[in-house]
Amino acid sequence: MTPAKITVQNTPITITAKNNNDYICITDMAKARNDDSRAADIIKNWIRNRATLEFLGTWELLYNPDFKVVEFDHLRMQAGLPTFTLSIGEWIEKTNAIGLTVERGRYGGTYAHKDIAFEFGSAISPTFKLYLIKEYQRLKEQDNDPQQLEWNAKRFLTKTNYLIQTDAVKNYIIPQTNYTKTTEWLAYADEADLINVALFGCTAKQWRDANPELAKTANIRDYATINELAILSNLQTHNAELIKQNISKEQRFTTLTEIARYQTKVLTEAEKIRTNPQELKP
């Protein structure tokens, strides 16, 4: 699952889910205070502080039954000494802590359970901490909005059905063409745009050219309505079946366009009835 993003005082911050809990990237948070190269130093200085260790230890005692208390007490006794150093990795390894984690890859960095991340916000500034909490709460409210949940569900369904379609392209179109490995993606793009044009009336590139600012962070399907996403999902599944039947691209486009128009009309009428039931009365 793609991590969520919030922006706190112009600083993008990643939020990921782990064991049904939200973990916030404190590496991203640290960048709000200094340049990227100093983020690791800020975290190291924070964790070696006695007050920080007291907070982390208390949190682990509350929520982690496997927390190694003896090792924690040993570290707490050393905290504050000039020679004391501690990394996130050492803290996790020595105490079996779960409140902090280090992730690799595209969204790599040090992540902290939201309770701990809010505490770390104080190391940036009290103001930053308050804005962090505010933006996090806004994200949760948005996630729990019924209409947003419906949109997300249909977007997920669309993406799932896209996998069905691309699998059909891979197995039924590419083997019959002379695409080289480096240009294989063209077949996928063609099929995606076949549906884009059938539903939206333009290709993805045409939409990007017409919406350069929006295209920096999104694509044409991200701005689709809930009804359009439902239709898009249906078109992708239907297109996959047509591909398997060796129906030509021209015939498929005609069929998909007709389906898109019909389903758009049906859903539009249904929406009118739902929002204006008085119109049904004589």
TrEMBL record:
Cited InterPro entries: KilA/APSES_HTH (IPR018004), KilA_N (IPR017880)
Pfam annotation, one family: KilA-N
Domain named KilA-N: residues: 2-139
Record field: transmembrane: none
Protein name: KilA-N domain-containing protein
Organism: Methanocorpusculum petauri
